[in-house]
Design goal:
With 638 residues, the chain is mainly α. The chain is built from 24 helices and four strands.
């Protein structure tokens, strides 16, 4: 006879016991055991969302109290300018082509995303707003449906597109499909980031060229601006302003990393250099003969009113039934775009170079993204999602720098490299000490992580001015050895920059917004695009071939990889970049999210079949975020 196994503890799909791995995160104990249910109850539905909420909830109060830190102030200023103005500039083509959107819609979209993700989100460091890809998608939808006989109302059709996309978002979050992110590595992120960087550069050129009068006339037949004419002199002034904005921004950044001026001045340049450059370049447009050239400026509408003074509520349910089904493929393309774009933005905002101590929540935030997408369709505004490079820029601006612990006489470290490690004490104590990490784990894996960080994230020590309280004049090279020791993880900076978008919707500030020349926005695009390219893994690998071997460090990880294999790896990435860039220039641009999404299976199945050794792939590629961050999606693949 067999003994009944009623009391036998058998792991099933309904009673999951996650192994207590080597994770040292504060939330590790939240992932241990799940309550058992009857076999017919599908407990996997919503499991990721529940875990994310359970892991993040204990930190909600500290997300507000931790904001009492000066680092929040420059973060708000920097992200406000880096988010709002590019979002408006990205939407200019959409605004002028469709005549269905205006500046008010873009600002309201940015505010809605900031409000929802800062108040209710699990990853408040990720900045969401209007991106270039969503404007490309919306414009392509307009171009396609306007060619059809008896074309539907554009906003009603987009409302259904957004609703289908929102439903797919909710299904994805409920079925824990965000666990697919464990297969997303730096191969995909660098390729997509490379594409976004060139989109910024392209839009900068596009903003400039559209200031020239069409057909060589003194005025343009297109609604280039709210100015009655677009002159040739104004277009050339726009080029001057764009170059002035770009050069001045890079000058401030260079000075912030130099040995010139007092440390507080250098830190001021790092925090406020870009906003000062934007304001100064805009002021130059109204100086002397520049003003008489009448450079084109940003278009604005009425305060708190949408384009054409239409009602804010879009009655998409009144759309003819046949168009409801036609909207589904477009909603699927939107889902693919947001699944990759938003989640990669979240990964990059919580990358391995950031010493985060609060857990992430990818499933829950993707559910919230479905909510914002649905609301955007109701209000007739562009759907917001995670921003690259603004999301990692936001986290970078919140970094606290400090000195790592020294090596003792026996050569054993008193504290591990803080990149990707967890901080067990409050950031308020980071100025006095670096927390001691728990030891253990596979030494080879730690070495591989540090090796990858040297390739993919070497700029954080160089591009950031150290904490003024930590660096004193006369320390010389000691200042350069400071590393990120903490991030001011809070919700206020995201909420504040979003609230400023709402302030811009008032009449006085709309007038101020109308004074910004488009040439300055072009310069902002060029600055952000070049800055993102400098930090991209593809760019670093390409520049490696131009380095003098005599000046290249002997411990440079790429020295361990054959140059032919580096070129092959870069070549595969550039093929993906080229395919994405090419398709966005055609009427088939509606399919570009699929090309972006295919980067992941390409890395999973194609790249390992190429003549790379495992050691070479470990150096050329790696996880985007630390194991602590990847806990939310089941960990990184080995």
């Amino acid at each position: 006879m067999t003994v009944p196994e009623e009391n036998t503890a058998v792991p099933t799909e309904d009673a999951v016991v996650t192994p207590a791995s080597t994770s040292k995160s504060p939330s590790a104990t939240l992932y241990r055991k799940e309550r058992s249910f009857p076999a017919w109850v599908p407990t996997f539905i919503g499991r990721g969302i529940a875990r994310d909420v359970k892991a993040r909830a204990p930190y909600y109060a500290s997300d507000w109290t931790d904001a009492w830190n000066y680092r929040v102030v420059p973060a708000v200023v920097l992200i406000f300018f880096a988010n709002v103005l590019p979002g408006i500039a990205f939407s200019l083509d959409l605004i002028e082509t469709t005549q269905q959107y205006g500046v008010a819609e873009v600002l309201l979209s940015s505010f809605m995303a900031a409000f929802i993700f800062s108040i209710f989100g699990a990853q408040p460091l990720c900045i969401a707003g209007v991106t270039g890809p969503i404007t490309v998608l919306n414009k392509t939808i307009f171009d396609i449906i306007e060619r059809q006989p008896n074309a539907p109302d554009y906003l009603q059709f987009v409302g259904w597109v957004y609703l289908w996309g929102a439903i797919l978002h909710w299904i994805t979050a409920a079925l824990n499909w965000c666990n697919f992110l464990q297969y997303v590595t730096l191969f995909s992120c660098d390729t997509f980031g490379f594409y976004v960087s060139w989109v910024y550069l392209q839009y900068g050129v596009q903003v400039i060229t559209r200031q020239f009068p069409s057909g060589g006339a003194s005025s343009s037949s297109e609604p280039l601006s709210n100015s009655p004419t677009a002159t040739l002199d104004g277009a050339f002034v726009g080029i001057i302003l764009a170059l002035l904005m770009t050069v001045t921004s890079f000058l401030f950044r260079t000075l912030s990393q130099s040995a010139y001026f007092h440390r507080h001045v250098r830190r001021f340049f790092a925090d406020y250099g870009m906003p000062i450059s934007l304001i100064a370049s805009s002021a130059v447009a109204y100086w002397g003969r520049f003003n008489s050239a009448n450079p084109t400026t940003l278009p604005t509408g009425h305060a708190f009113m949408p384009a054409g003074d239409r009602p804010w509520l879009v009655r998409f349910w009144e759309l003819d039934g046949k168009w409801v089904g036609i909207a589904f493929p477009f909603g699927f393309a939107l889902w693919v775009l947001f699944f990759f774009d938003h989640n990669v933005s979240s990964l990059m905002a919580q990358g391995t170079e950031f010493p985060l101590r609060k857990p992430p929540g990818f499933h829950y935030d993707f559910f919230l993204l479905g909510m914002t997408t649905f609301i955007a369709g109701l209000l007739g505004i562009p759907a917001p999602n995670g921003l690259i490079p603004q999301a990692p820029i936001h986290t970078t601006s919140l970094l606290v720098m400090g000195h790592p612990k020294k090596i003792d006489l026996e050569g054993s470290p008193r504290g591990e490299d803080l990149r990707g490690s967890r901080i067990s004490t409050s950031w308020k104590d980071e100025k006095n000490k670096v927390p001691e990490e728990q030891r253990g784990g596979d030494q080879n894996k730690e070495t591989a992580i540090r090796t990858r960080s040297r390739i993919h994230h070497p700029r954080s020590d160089e591009m950031l001015e150290p904490d003024p309280t930590q660096a004193r004049d006369g320390e010389g090279d000691v200042r350069r050895h400071e590393v990120p020791v903490a991030v001011v993880e809070q919700r206020v900076s995201n909420l504040a920059q979003g609230s400023l978008c709402l302030v811009l919707l008032t009449r006085p500030f709309l007038h101020v917004l109308n004074l910004i020349p488009r040439g300055v926005l072009a310069g902002l695009f060029w600055y952000m695009g070049v800055d993102a390219l400098q930090g991209n893994g593809i760019t670093r690998k390409i520049l490696y071939f131009f380095k003098d071997d005599a000046l290249t460090p002997a411990d440079e990880p790429l020295r361990q990889v054959r140059k032919s294999r580096i070129l092959l790896f870069i070549g595969v990435q550039l093929v993906g970049f080229g395919a994405t860039m090419t398709i966005t220039q055609t009427i088939a641009a509606i399919g570009f999210p699929v090309i972006i999404f295919l980067l992941v299976p390409t890395r999973m199945w194609l790249v390992p079949r190429l003549p790379f050794t495992p050691e070479e792939l470990a150096i050329l590629d790696g996880p985007t975020a630390s194991p602590f961050t990847m806990e939310s999606v089941g960990g990184s693949i080995r």
